[in-house]
Amino acid sequence: MRNVLPALLLCLSGLASPAHAADPGEVPIGKPLRQATLQGLNGPSVALSTFRGQPLLINVWASWCGPCRAETASLERLAWLSPDRKYSIIGISTDDYVAQARAWLGQSRATISHYIDHELEMEHMLGASRLPLTVLVDANGRVLSRIYGAREWDSPGSLALIDQAFGKSGRSR
Fold it and tell me: How high does pLDDT run on average in the chain?
């Protein structure tokens, strides 16, 4: 029995590893995001292509997700940290009910633009197999990286990650 448990754990860890099979609709790293209309939660609806021309940080979350809620404040601080930043920050809620997502945004006093996923379109396109997920996208709309799990987005390590991904176009010096 002692040998079965480690083998079982090894098998289960393989199922949850980042090397999992991608969703058929997931845009691979290095490829551009497809066209989509983002339904506004705390502002108007917009075309995803509206953000082309500058880098984009997309945070995928849900109101019921504790780690998602925990990182919300750091995303707000990031947005206010450098008003001259050269990238946009948006949130995409995967909530099934718009009212729940809006209630959380009101409670969190969100100022960055948030949108609700429509028929799992963005969830599939971005590869949101688990939450929270943050996707860094270059100015041409190409996916640069996916970061799963909550972070302190205004921490030195996260700022270095953003600078590395977006280069000099990320922040004014």
Answer: 86
Give dist(CA 59, CA 41) in Å, integer: 14
18 pLDDT exceeds 80?
A: no
Residues 6+ apart with CB under 8 A from 107: none
**From CA 135, how far away is CA 112, in angstroms rounded?**
16
Q: Tell me the residue type at 146.
A: R
Cα–Cα distances in angstroms (integers) from residue 98 to residues 9, 18, 63, 71, in the given order = 38, 29, 10, 20
* Amino acid symbol at 8: L
Global pTM?
0.84
Dump pLDDT digits (tens) for 112-136. 999 999 889 999 999 999 999 999 9
CA atoms of 82 and 98, how far apart (whole Å): 30
Contact (CB, 8 A) for 41 and 114: yes
Q: Are strands 88-93 and 56-61 parallel, antiparallel or unpaired?
A: parallel
Q: How confident is the model at residue 168 (pLDDT cuts 50, 70, 90)?
A: low
Q: By the 8 A CB rule, do 158 and 82 touch?
A: no
